[in-house]
Specification:
By secondary structure, the protein is an alpha/beta fold. Helices cover 31% and strands 24% of the residues. The strands form three sheets. Strands 1, 2, 3, 4, 5, 16, 17, 18 and 19 form a nine-stranded mixed β-sheet that branches. The structure holds N-(aminocarbonyl)-beta-alanine (URP) and zinc ion (2 copies).
């Protein structure tokens, strides 16, 4: 057995903070105490630092074939980058091809991660269609620990499902104990606007945003919640970007409807003006939904503080500039997505905790505890307690970083946050008791991450 002792840190969970020590036996937290003096094989001094549960990012796309290319991080580079940023668990998306079984899709994504992932990982399943056979398979997937399914109201001809299929999948999710995650944008309306813009010769990256209005996100969010209400199941809106969409979630929650939503750092820290950067630079920010007006970001922060938004994930889906250039002369061909798995905790610490928008506890809640509960990983993940996995971050609240793609570890030749200086970063990161990052150096092993068989939602 390997034992590890973390001493003198300020231990912060979603609910508590105290000065103390953590004793780890192999992969598991064995004991918490004010002072633990037992001998240990590995000793970590956390004086002056926080100790938090490892970050959990429930929205990543490693090695995703999309938009005529493939996202540039695979499970090795992407999870190593995640670890550098203090994230010790990801939930990525397996994708079902039309006519393909869910099991085949799951096996394909398991093979992509096997031998590569440096941190633990689970999968949601993207369904492109609903058939009775796929409905039967949803139960099998839940049995394998894939307890959430993502459906799309956008990307006609690629991912988009009609309302009847969405509704049927929702009803089935209720029967099998799964959660439906929804990409809520009105794909039909957006498609018309895109064709009209291109016909007018409006081809620059900014038209990606101008053809995806906030109201199209709000309409789809409202419809997703209404369909879930009729099906009598909860619904989780992914990558919510618009205040108008948040208002739909808030209205439903105020009526006691189990509607949940995540937002992402890009919607809190970047805005429409990024699309106005000269030349083709706006392509770096092409993602769906798009960046919105800066004036409405305060609404998202209020939603996060008040629990109308429960989680911050990243929607990490990086493409290098040469891939973005597939859309030179036609914004609709720019692959949608941006890098972010490494920068989430530090952005939220710097721009959320340090500015007083959220408390330290809320930061831990939205970046680790709530994701663990929402997606069936708690209390193994998402907290610091005896019996929990020793996924821990010794967080230096004073460490200063200036972002650049050269110093970040994501396999992407730009960072949307390049030049931004933030305060707060991990000094040491442990995954199931093993140190995987120390003072900026990766000490882990590709392939040591384990597949997480998730349970249904527990909050
Ligand atoms: O632009 C995005 N969001 N790319 C990833 C795919 C998705 O819809 O999540
Ligand atoms: Zn999406
Ligand atoms: Zn996504």
């Amino acid at each position: 057995m390997t034992t590890t002792l973390i001493k003198n840190g300020t231990i912060v969970t979603a609910t508590d903070s105290w000065r103390g020590d953590i004793y780890i036996e192999d992969e598991t937290i064995a004991q918490l105490g004010r002072t633990i003096e037992w001998p240990a094989d590995v000793n970590i001094d956390a004086t002056g630092r926080l100790v938090i549960p490892g970050g959990i990012d429930v929205h990543t796309h490693m090695d995703l074939p999309f938009g005529g290319t493939t996202s540039s991080d695979d499970f090795e580079t992407g999870t190593i980058a995640a670890a550098h940023g203090g994230t010790t668990t990801i939930v990525d998306f397996a994708v079902q091809d039309r006519g393909e079984s869910l099991r085949k899709a799951w096996e394909t994504w398991m093979a992509k991660a096997e031998g590569k992932a440096a941190i633990d990982y689970g999968f949601h399943m993207i369904m492109r269609e609903f058939t009775p056979e796929l409905g039967r398979e949803m139960k099998d997937m839940v049995g394998e620990g894939v307890t959430s399914f993502k459906l799309f109201m956008a990307y006609p001809g690629v991912f988009m499902m009609d309302d009847a299929s969405i509704f049927s999948a929702m009803q089935r999710s209720g029967e099998v104990g799964a959660t439906i995650c929804m990409h809520a944008e009105n794909g039909g309306v957006i498609d018309v606007l895109v064709r009209q813009a291109l016909a007018r010769g409006q081809t620059d990256p900014k038209y990606h945003a101008l053809t995806r209005p906030a109201r199209a996100e709000a309409e789809a969010t409202h419809r997703a919640i209404a369909l879930a209400e009729i099906a009598q199941v909860p619904v989780y809106i992914v990558h919510l970007s618009a205040a108008e969409a948040l208002a739909m979630v808030t209205e439903a929650r105020d009526r006691g409807v189990p509607a949940y939503a995540e937002t992402c750092p890009q919607y809190l820290f970047l805005d429409y003006q990024n699309y106005e950067e000269p030349g083709f630079a706006g392509a770096k920010y092409v993602m769906s939904p798009p960046l919105r007006a800066r004036e409405r970001q305060a609404d998202l922060w209020r939603g996060l503080a008040g629990d109308d938004l429960q989680i911050v994930s990243t929607d990490h889906c990086p493409f290098c500039i040469k891939d973005k250039e597939l859309g030179l002369g036609d914004f609709s061909k720019i692959p949608n997505g941006a890098p972010g798995v490494e920068t989430r905790l530090t952005l939220l610490h710097d721009g959320g905790v340090r500015t007083g928008r959220i408390s330290l506890h809320r930061w831990v809640q939205i970046c680790s505890t709530a994701p663990a509960k929402m997606f069936g990983m708690f209390p193994k993940k998402g907290t610091i307690a005896p019996g929990s996995d020793a996924d821990l971050v010794v967080w230096n609240p004073e460490r200063k970083l200036t972002f650049s793609h050269e110093t970040l570890h994501m396999r992407c030749d730009y960072s949307p946050y390049a030049g931004r200086t933030v305060v707060g970063a991990p000094d040491v990161v442990l995954s199931r008791g093993r140190v995987i990052v120390e003072d900026g150096a990766f000490k882990g092993k590709p392939g040591s991450g384990r597949f997480l068989r998730r349970a249904p939602r527990t909050n």
